[in-house]
Amino acid sequence: MKYILLGFLLISATSFAATEPMYPFAKPAEQARFMHLIKEFRCLVCQNENLADSNASLAKDLRGQIYQMVQAGKTNQEITHYLVDRYGDYILFKPPVNRLTYLLWFGPFFLLIVGFVILLFTIKNRNTKPVKINPTQSEQLQQLLNQADDE
Amino acid sequence: MGNMKLWLPLIIFLIVVGFFWKGLREDPTKVPSPLINKAAPQFASESLLNPKQRLTNQIFQGHVSLLNVWASWCYACRSETDTLKEIVDSKTVTVIGMDYKDQRSEALAWLDREGDPYSEIISDPTGDIGINYGVYGTPETFVIDKNGIIRYKYIGPISPSVWKDDILPVVLKWQRG
User: Fold this and answer.
1) What is the chain A residue with the closest CA to B41?
2) Which of B21, B28, B39, B127 is disulfide-compatible with B101, CB 3.0–4.6 A?
3) What is the value of ipTM here, to two decimals?
4) Three-state DSSP class for B31?
């Protein structure tokens, strides 16, 4: 399993390296920050890819922009602002929590709570409602129980 | 309560259908622009036809403009040139082009072949101006009002019906306003 994973990592590493002019950084921390950032943003041309994986020419340009901004010491927040100002929240793979996305963020928890409430009600109803039967049914029941005892 | 229980699956089903109805009819490749109702980003570039001439946001002042982002390598752009020419002929709005991530010689050849509907063309060979305008796929068309504020953006080639139904009403609104 480990080797399979390693294989996948190597494949993705080569495909990235083959298309890219290198992005040299003086500090490994900056390099890591750059690599982290380009995975956070969506390529708007091929929408299910992030900027790190995409070969689209716009993705290359945006990698270049992010590289320059990291070099210039811009914070992650500043870089995110730069991209959202131009391309909108859609460029973020992790959508921000705001009025438009409350349903997205909290909907599942809401449904979970609703589910629990329904579950509790169902259990409560099941325990508290005694089954009412008329005397004939009661007699039949008693007979059945006696039969079961005999067997 | 018993009645309610019977209807509940149908209600949930209808809500889900509603979400799909809305969600699946929208084109996910058309991303709304955050630049609507904001000033058109500043730029300083050269005119494609006359490289000595500097162009800035001044070209949007005083009249409603269509800013059409195109490139000679863009196949879809070819399909809207006729509509753009019709728009120019109707004299309703100034049509300005932006040549995006293109080589000048190829762009000029394209204009010779397809015809040039633009009153002015901003040259953006690196795509840097495009990034500031949030361009991600050509063709894209912005409606910019007489004060240089972006009012509308259409992504994809303009057909006569798109012009008539989607873009013209916005143009007329901002010509009045």
Assistant:
1) A86
2) B127
3) 0.80
4) coil
